[in-house]
Structures are given as C-alpha cells and as structure tokens.
Specification:
43% of the residues lie in helices and 16% in strands. It is α/β, with parallel strands linked by helices. The chain has one domain: Aldolase class I (TIM Barrel, Alpha-Beta Barrel), CATH 3.20.20. Helix 3 links the parallel strand 2 and strand 3.
C-alpha cells in the first residue's frame, strides 16, 4: 500500500507487547522490534501509554522507541497519558510529534472516559501551551459530545481523540446507528472548529470500515489490543496490512 494515498493514519499502540514481555525477565517479545515491524508493514505511527506503575511500557521503552523512530522521519511518535502523572516528563525529554492527554487515574485498568469542560479547562491550558511551545501537537481524549468541542478549541488543542468504546460495544447490534451518530455529530463539530479528529479504543479491523465511512474527517486511529491480538495469529506484517485495508475509503 502506498502511504501517500492512505488518508487515515494508523498508529500502532505497542503497550500489549510490553505487557507480555514484562511477564518474564527475558526481554521478549521486543517492543522496539514490534514497532519496527509495524513501521515496515506500513503503519504511519507508533503509540505508547506509559503509566506510572510501568505495568507495560517502561521509561526506557519510550527512549528506545525514540531511537527507532529517528530512522523513520516520515512517521509519527504519539505518547499518551495523564499530564498530571508522568506524561510531561516524557514530552519534555522526547518531543514526540503528538501527545494525547488522557484523564485516567494511576491505577486505572484502561482509559474509559474523556476530559470534561469547564471542569478540567483551567489546569489543562498551561500544559497544552507548554507542549505547543515545544512543537508538539496536542490531542485531547474526549467522549463523543459535540458541545464540548468548542472548549477544546478554546484551550488551544490541535485535535481530539474520540473515545470509541461505546461505538465498538454497540457495533453489530440494534444501537449501532445511534451510537455512530454521536461520533458523526462530534467529528463534524470538531472539524467545523478547525480541530483534527483522531479516534481510539476497542477499534478493530471489523468495526473500522463503518466508522471510517461515516467520518470522512478522520485523520488517525490508534489501535493496540486488537491489532496485537491479530498479530499473534497473523504476524505483524499481515495484521498491519489488514488494518490499513480497513482504513481505506469505502464506496
């Protein structure tokens, strides 16, 4: 697949590779090797979510991956997490192309909600401005709520990452159209305000095509769990290829 003709970027989250590696003391599977294979297969970016307890991605992984990414100047490194925990230290030392602010707690199993405005606005604004001063694009993890997009734009963020678990849970059922409509409305509101639209959480090669077709403004998806699970059966090359195909525009 020609990357220049892929309108939606696939950023592979390698957290689950690190989780498996951390179950033993052997250093396998390799997080950096996984990232390299995904990039070779055509992924346009790599995502990590380094949590304070280092239960999957560890501090050295972030810096090791930075070295990998230097060999791929046309791809992007996205670091996500809570800016009030350990995230900003990585932003200041690594200067990734993109940072995604996620409002999870330190012991949270997985991300399950977006920022809320005006509640979170005051404390986020200086950190958003710091990231932008470092030349790092800022995306905010948000629920599909159209009326929240104006607050995101007012804070100076560049993009939103729509939290897609509700869509994934409804996919294939009677509530799918209703759930998808919320994302369409939110993406339209964000796009009208000049915000880029990313998406992530529980997206897979089966539910992606419908989401992509409904939201033409989509710029990027971040996928980890499902892609790594597929890679266990298919290999990284075939798994990434399958996801790139799922992201192609639908007739």
């Amino acid at each position: 697949m020609n990357l220049k003709h892929s309108p939606i970027a696939l950023s592979v989250n390698v957290n689950k590779v690190a989780l498996l590696r951390n179950s033993r003391q052997l250093g396998i599977p390799s997080v950096t090797r996984a990232a390299q294979l995904c990039l070779e297969a055509g992924a346009q970016g790599i995502t990590v979510h380094p949590r304070p307890d280092e239960r999957h991605i560890r501090s050295h992984d972030v810096h090791d991956l930075l070295e990998v990414m230097k060999a791929w100047p046309d791809r992007e490194f996205n670091i996500e997490g809570n800016p009030f925990h350990n995230l900003m230290a990585f932003v200041r030392s690594v200067h990734p192309q993109q940072v995604t602010f996620v409002p999870d707690s330190e012991g949270q199993f997985t991300s399950d909600h977006g920022w809320q405005f005006p509640k979170d606005a005051e404390r986020l604004q200086p950190l958003i401005q710091e990231c932008k001063s470092l030349g790092v694009r800022v995306s905010l993890f948000m629920d599909p709520l159209p009326d929240q997009m104006a607050a995101v734009q007012a804070l100076g963020a560049d993009r939103v990452e729509l939290y897609t678990e509700p869509y994934a849970a409804a996919w294939g059922g009677p509530q799918e159209a209703f759930a998808l409509a919320r994302y369409v409305q939110t993406a339209d509101a964000a796009h009208a305000l000049g915000l880029g639209v990313n998406a992530g959480h529980d997206l897979n090669q089966h539910n992606l095509p419908g989401f992509v077709k409904a939201i033409p403004a989509l710029k990027e998806v971040s996928i980890g769990h499902a892609l790594v699970a597929d890679a266990l059966e298919l290999g990284y090359q075939a798994a990434v290829t399958a996801y790139l195909r799922a992201l192609e525009p639908q007739p």
